[in-house]
Amino acid sequence: MTQPTLHAPAPTSYDDRPVPGTGPATLEARDITAWFGSHQVLDRVSLTMPASGITALIGPSGCGKSTFLRILNRMHELVPSAALAGEVLLDGEDIYDPQRKLTDARRAIGMVFQKPNPFPAMSIRENVVAGLRLTGTRLGKADKELLVEECLVRGGLWKEVKDRLDSPGGGLSGGQQQRLCIARSLAIKPRVLLMDEPCSALDPTSTRVIEETMKDLAQQVTIVIVTHNMQQAARVSDTCAFFLASQGTPGVIVEHGDTEAMFASPRDQRTSDYVNGRFG
Ligand SMILES: Nc1ncnc2c1ncn2[C@@H]1O[C@H](COP(=O)(O)OP(=O)(O)OP(=O)(O)O)[C@@H](O)[C@H]1O
Q1: Which atom number of ligand 1 is nearest to the Cα of residue 37?
Q2: Taking every annotated instance into account, which residue ranges of this chain make up the domain ABC transporter (predicted)?
Q3: Prediction pTM value
């Protein structure tokens, strides 16, 4: 199979003036405790996810990684039984501040899910700009075209779809659909992109393409990824956090820090066992 060539330079943005409160942001979780009903799933988890970096969240199944990720853009509260304590700061501003709108957090902190979820009957072009309606952004035709191209270039998909932008998003391969979802997330100019096992449904070639895309994007948007794939965490992330929920206890972060150091010389025996495939 031919490996697609990635990332022609992005076209001149339709509006690339620096805007205050835009660009990659540092996300800081402080003392996050989370419950589903009476079941406590996280216990005072604190983590700083640096701007313009890729942070990987690793750990065995059920230790609360996805819950933590969903707390970072206020999706946890969509579950009726869910509750949480603690703070999430986006460049120092609490996203749970009651004065702030929920949509502000979701706009600044985008999410890509495990299973690619483009609108299947909608064209590739319309998929990319689908989020703009939700944020109330109106663009003229020419600006829209530039934005579509910019996001598809950044999502690593432009060269493969530039001649069929009117074809349905559902006609793309799984890996292409996932990159379309990344492009759709980028269209609303998030400052942070959360990715929940974005490659778990993809073959190794598509996985590597997404990983390259992530690395290229990291200068423009802070990335936080949940992954079960240790090689992937080692390949793509700058910093890493190892979550663990010992039997019957809520999830905690056992160790976090520079990915290379954590994989080469973990400080905690449990981290060493996990990254070396001895459990989980
Ligand atoms: N909607 C929900 N309602 C009730 N309990 C939930 C819900 N979502 C998750 N949980 C529970 O919260 C705990 C943490 O789940 P979570 O999905 O965050 O873990 P995870 O580390 O991401 O797991 P995996 O790696 O398998 O995806 C688990 O015990 C799970 O059963």
Answers
A1: 4
A2: 27-275
A3: 0.90
